Amino acid sequence: MKAWPTAEPRPFAAVLLFLRAIVRKARNGNEFLVVELGDKSGMFSATCFQDSAAFALFSEIAEGTIVRVEGTTERYQGKFSPRFTSVGLFSEGEVAAGNWLPKLIEAAPEDATKLWDELQEIINSIAHEGLRATTKQVFDTIGERFRVAPAATAMHHAYRHGLLEHTVHVARVARALLPLYPEVDPSLAVAGTLLHDIGKAIEYEGELAAKKSRIGILQGHVVLGYRIARQAAMKAKPALDAAMLERLEHIILSHQGELEWGAAALAATPEAVFVAMCDNFDAKMGMVQQALRNTPDTQEFSDFLPGLKVSLITTPPGAPPTAEPPPA
Amino acid sequence: MKAWPTAEPRPFAAVLLFLRAIVRKARNGNEFLVVELGDKSGMFSATCFQDSAAFALFSEIAEGTIVRVEGTTERYQGKFSPRFTSVGLFSEGEVAAGNWLPKLIEAAPEDATKLWDELQEIINSIAHEGLRATTKQVFDTIGERFRVAPAATAMHHAYRHGLLEHTVHVARVARALLPLYPEVDPSLAVAGTLLHDIGKAIEYEGELAAKKSRIGILQGHVVLGYRIARQAAMKAKPALDAAMLERLEHIILSHQGELEWGAAALAATPEAVFVAMCDNFDAKMGMVQQALRNTPDTQEFSDFLPGLKVSLITTPPGAPPTAEPPPA
Amino acid sequence: MKAWPTAEPRPFAAVLLFLRAIVRKARNGNEFLVVELGDKSGMFSATCFQDSAAFALFSEIAEGTIVRVEGTTERYQGKFSPRFTSVGLFSEGEVAAGNWLPKLIEAAPEDATKLWDELQEIINSIAHEGLRATTKQVFDTIGERFRVAPAATAMHHAYRHGLLEHTVHVARVARALLPLYPEVDPSLAVAGTLLHDIGKAIEYEGELAAKKSRIGILQGHVVLGYRIARQAAMKAKPALDAAMLERLEHIILSHQGELEWGAAALAATPEAVFVAMCDNFDAKMGMVQQALRNTPDTQEFSDFLPGLKVSLITTPPGAPPTAEPPPA
Amino acid sequence: MKAWPTAEPRPFAAVLLFLRAIVRKARNGNEFLVVELGDKSGMFSATCFQDSAAFALFSEIAEGTIVRVEGTTERYQGKFSPRFTSVGLFSEGEVAAGNWLPKLIEAAPEDATKLWDELQEIINSIAHEGLRATTKQVFDTIGERFRVAPAATAMHHAYRHGLLEHTVHVARVARALLPLYPEVDPSLAVAGTLLHDIGKAIEYEGELAAKKSRIGILQGHVVLGYRIARQAAMKAKPALDAAMLERLEHIILSHQGELEWGAAALAATPEAVFVAMCDNFDAKMGMVQQALRNTPDTQEFSDFLPGLKVSLITTPPGAPPTAEPPPA
Amino acid sequence: MKAWPTAEPRPFAAVLLFLRAIVRKARNGNEFLVVELGDKSGMFSATCFQDSAAFALFSEIAEGTIVRVEGTTERYQGKFSPRFTSVGLFSEGEVAAGNWLPKLIEAAPEDATKLWDELQEIINSIAHEGLRATTKQVFDTIGERFRVAPAATAMHHAYRHGLLEHTVHVARVARALLPLYPEVDPSLAVAGTLLHDIGKAIEYEGELAAKKSRIGILQGHVVLGYRIARQAAMKAKPALDAAMLERLEHIILSHQGELEWGAAALAATPEAVFVAMCDNFDAKMGMVQQALRNTPDTQEFSDFLPGLKVSLITTPPGAPPTAEPPPA
Amino acid sequence: MKAWPTAEPRPFAAVLLFLRAIVRKARNGNEFLVVELGDKSGMFSATCFQDSAAFALFSEIAEGTIVRVEGTTERYQGKFSPRFTSVGLFSEGEVAAGNWLPKLIEAAPEDATKLWDELQEIINSIAHEGLRATTKQVFDTIGERFRVAPAATAMHHAYRHGLLEHTVHVARVARALLPLYPEVDPSLAVAGTLLHDIGKAIEYEGELAAKKSRIGILQGHVVLGYRIARQAAMKAKPALDAAMLERLEHIILSHQGELEWGAAALAATPEAVFVAMCDNFDAKMGMVQQALRNTPDTQEFSDFLPGLKVSLITTPPGAPPTAEPPPA
């Protein structure tokens, strides 16, 4: 939306995601809806009065539905806030035919199917039978949601398939570094990397319009992940023995690093320290990668990145600096 | 010293490192020395009065000298504080003959010569000519001090050769992970890992009894390392071009991660983020490794580790827990 | 131990709790034990060499065993560190006959049996059938350990039965305040107060010598309590419905108040805010009560209380100040 | 204002509170006024030029005056910023006839007269004569302002009569809990709860449009409350003795809990700890109550509450969750 | 810009500073520019489409160029966002003739030439030959940039010549206080005050539109100042001896006071503590002075000042308070 | 006491300050005293049993009494803890004859009488009649205690007459800087510096053995100073007008700078910012001065200074560094 370079009121038509609707009451007692719509580039709110077709439609459809809207561009209290003249649904066929999805939602730059296959390969490479079975059990149960979930609603890997992408990347980091740290148990570390963020599959909800779910607010992904792993360990064939389960649970509970960042316990095993550091490594580098993708070549700096507390320099190191060097 | 299992006053003889001597004035105006001596396992203070042979000796010799002392075990103000009956120096031959050094000083578990060779190999692998020449120039100038310096006076790799060991380890981490992050320039990242802590070769002084030097207190290793790299870049053949030097300097200035941890700038290039994370990774895992080495097999937990804020569980994950599982 | 007003070495005999033994290796390679013994007033360490009877005994007995020791008072490195001439066990009969327990361990000032009965009464008063059955189920399973556990290893209610006492006190606070806050569901709030700290029954171990258990370090009492409540809710008759269980779990996960104090989630229901505040109220007032009990009448201030960051004024408000008022 | 569901410029007429006017100078040197007007639902700014009737009126009337305005809805720099065609005052009779006050200002949900009567009853229940007389003296002097003041300009009880409501609520909490903590002096604790926030009657000014007063900025409500209590204690019949006054003053000075939250001293008496906790309890629960009142039934979560750092779940615990439970 | 008291679209013409242009891509693939223009009173953004004259002009001219624009006032997304009908450059002669500079840029209230003369006088007063020569050398090299640079982009002395003004003020403070602290070396302290912020001459770039330069982001003014001083000390005649240079460098590296405020080392010499405090003194008082200048006489309080965390009371102490005193 | 260079038990005799006695109960029920005695160089504790002469004496005499003790040097729990064979009082004549005071208590290095005279001169220089009279009134009332009080119990100016010395120093700083900041009212600023810490005269008690008084703990020196100034302003002839008193009170309430450092309000007038900075300036420089006095010439660094977070380099800048410069 940021890129809509116009200011004067004029008719428009767009295909957009319906994000959510909030009921408000006007001073005269009549209800109206504040509707949020968006696409990959941003979002805006619009007001729909009780007697309009838009009011009727948005009162009924689910969040994340793709809609076609027509109207006039207007502003209210300084924000873009159009008046709708026509709203309508889109059939799945129309969505596919127009290849609308990639225009509406940012997705992981890597191919989701290949990432999923790599995830399977990594699971199969776990030497410890119980850990392998437990990990498989988790993804058999919750893989559907995991596959499309973002890794965050902001910060790093905050896009469709982002959780899958981040998880595979952390496992790659772990596998690359395991030879350097022989005191770390490989099966436990790899299973830990695959499951460390698994609770996010439940913490966020809405395939096309991700936000924190109620259970996500009440328990957080750390505890949810612990519960998912624990249940899978019991159902797995063979089930995971209690001693090893305790270690696996500890990795999930401690991977956030610090209590104030949401860890339920501080990492107290070599594998837990190792996984927390692999996670942190890819989270930070993921912010770098996303900034590089999103910054135009003509700019020397990215937008400010809150997770790194800087504007990243995005020109490659070999390139000549764009301004003359300082005199001293 | 912690391991000296005795309490009653009795004669003793020991070979020890002279750490330092502080002049104090007694109430009657006479000066006396508070002398610190130690070995690998700890240290203690002793008081030497003005008219003693010990006072004369410790007033003259350099910190880090190896001495032989005899005396009686006593305590003063609750600390072990012996009275010396005889003190003397050790010839270098005697030190070598008795193989005293490894008993007195903790050293990196890996062989220093092999680590040094690996460092050379890593330098030679740097593709960018100016970065390779600059890195070579640094170690040609300051390699002697670098080779024996600790990486810290506490926390991680705080032992003889520790700086060499930590530096090689961080470079190993970087080389293992570079294939996963193609946006990171390999030459710059590897040169950055080799030089990130180079200022510590000057920040600490005293080969056998490391402490912060005056210049270390006045400027800190971050600025000192920046200065060393800058001078080397100018003397190197070929000299490093200004654009690339700026990037290399930034890695050194930002590798501490946060301003309050001593960074002079926040990491703002892909390579600076990458090197700071590699450093952090090996620093944390180095604490794990040291705890595993120093904890007896009969104990389930290490001593409390301030850098990780926990007592690490040092029994391997496969081992049965030493206590029964909780009822729930 | 603080109260042992003597300094000169002399024979002694005492009945003490064996707290723990750590194996250390002397410089000559021989093992020795560092043994911790204590009673209600404090603790000390003693060194036992490999060939002594004390070494043999303390290598075998469990932590928390009551022992009779004889020896000579000595000091090592400034701490009281006796040499044992004789050590022996105590039969349960001897312990009972000498009424040793209250001399060795601080216990809740209120009678444990009456507190337990009050706990039962509070459980029975829960109107919601599922919450009542779940709470009952928890205490049927884990009541034994809960009954003797401390509420902390330091700070508030850090003594035998302290967890029971604190839990009943928090429930009393909740019941006194429920009439003032009608928006809070009474059944959920009362069940929440009874279960909020239930994980501490597992987080600490050792009936007479409490310390954090391995599972306590790996998961923490917040997650352990969540697990205990979840299992009980499923086994309870009737089982607790999912919607209410979610609310109960949330109270346990959020009762610590802030993430950095160990909460796994921030309180986001009226009942969770209410229980967290009731808990905080009694924790602080428990520190006040303990300081009032432990400060002699002749003193105007208690020792410094880290939990309140002050020395409490322990003279009653009506009493005349012990020093004249300031001139202004 | 949030609820004014319109965007297009059109005529309007409204009865509003005049909040304040700031004089600004245009680039051409002419002065103009930025006027703030509002009602219970929000506020907006409007610009009045030097030669307009609005400029003349708003230059003269006091903040908090009720006005009738007519004009056209417009926007300036993204904010609603109407042009006035007519402005006028309202007589007190017109305000009363139209029952305008409750439409313009949020007030405590409980009846102010009943709260005031309850306050009197609580004062009369104080057993200690000097404390009772001092408390009475305070409210005789400053009761008028106290009765209508808000308890805050944001956060908890931030509305007309909010200070009275919060004060009575804290006293209710104290009276409910005093039987549980016999070490707390009831007279001192109750007087302390009634007077803890008394300085807010002066810290805020403007009956209808509360903001911090100059003296509020210069001294803060903690010191102002201390001064009010001190003066009242001297004028009371009988006057309060110095020892008890010191305790009462300490409660006021320490009730904010932590220095960084504005406490002038840390609570160091049982009564000061007790009152600080009662205050904290009702402050947090007051935020819960306000969120429950202001959140429509159709919404599962309240707006984000900065004081609790969450969006509160406002559906009752018995209600079925609005979305299906997670699969795991 | 804040002072443009109008809302309706209408033609305008203005002389403004071109601050910067960012290239964006519209959804249809066409590029457009977001252009920032401003004067002393504020700034705004405007959108220029690919086929416009404005697009052509702003793609080519340097940041900080003075331009004349004509167009219609409009708004986009709530911000003032005009459409340009005509844009053009200004000759230097026209700028001078119209005396445009002081209308466009805020400058230090003191006369820059007099400040510069005073700076020279202070340099000449440095008794120590090497320090005097080094200081002279610095300003000979970098004086041009130093003279016009701001002392900050926000907070204190954030205007043209602000760095010069702040530097002279800090030296005045030092000279006034040196007689009170005889343990402080006057030459070193005065040289330190003159050079403490010298790195800001490079950290910021753009004479008329200051922002952080690339090297400013990569290294920060503390390290840049250290480098400038070090190079000057070597080129100075006589060159500064190593011992004194070390002290001077330390003052620059430590003057920010705390690591988290950007200091590379903590002040560890009497002169470093002294200079850091002089700097802090004038920084805070500079905020006071700027607030007093910018607040109209008719207002009792300044705008909120983030650096002081308050709204300053700007009426003089002798003046009667604008509202009646509180009753108590 | 640190300087007592001996460890073996032996007879001793000393003249010491009696600091305080705490009653403890031994396990057998008998009371004993823990007595604290000290001199300028430190302090120690000794145990006195119920039937001893020392017990009798120390139960009766006031804290701060000078005593003569004889006994044997012993240690208990690692601390110097002598057994007394004889204790006795000292007549005032004996104290004066032996000139004991300066040996027992550290005092301000400047002459107290001269400082006091300078204080009077500064008071007389205040131009504003009401402020001058108020300041005079304060010192007429409380000058006795003020004159001997320390400025702190740790950190800066923590010695007899330290409050007088610090106060005069801060006033000197203010008077030296007032010409540079004409927007600061001189009378108000000077009166503010003289009174900013006046509450410390009451916050600490005990002329020879300073510690926080009860009222100091309950209210803190900021509020106590406010009260003293307020009472004096009313009694002064002429009394201070309300508008100016409000400004003076604000300086006292805000001089600590930050709420977490104990300020009751944040500085919000030019004079309050000015005084807070003058105070901070001299506090930091006072730590520097004390470190320079207390560090022997043979040492390059002072002990670690918590208030500055460093060991200060105490050799003058001109002196050659004691170690060779680093190679780079």
Description:
6 copies of one chain form a homohexamer. Chain A has 328 residues and is an alpha+beta fold. Helix content of chain A is 43%, strand content 19%. Chain A is built from 11 helices and 11 strands. The first copy, chain A, has helices spanning 53-60, 92-97, 101-104, 112-124, 129-148, 162-177, 186-195, 200-203, 214-235, 242-254, 270-294; strands spanning 11-25, 31-39, 42-49, 66-72, 75-76, 79-80, 83-89, 204-205, 211-212, 301-305, 310-313. In chain A, the strands form 4 sheets. The first copy, chain A, has a 5-stranded antiparallel beta sheet. A two-stranded antiparallel sheet of chain A has the order 5-6. Chain A is globular. The model of chain A is unreliable at 1-7 and 321-328 (pLDDT under 50). Chains in contact: A-B, A-C, A-D, A-E, B-C, B-E, B-F, C-D, C-F, D-E, D-F, E-F.
Low-confidence stretches of chain A: 1-7, 321-328
Average residue-wise pLDDT of chain A: 85
Largest sheet of chain A: 5 strands, antiparallel
Which term fits the overall shape of chain A? globular
What's the helix-strand series of chain A? EEEHEEEEHHHHHHHEEHHHEE
Helix content of chain A: 40-55%
Please, how many helices of chain A? 11
The CA-CA distance between the termini of chain A, in Å, is: 44 Å
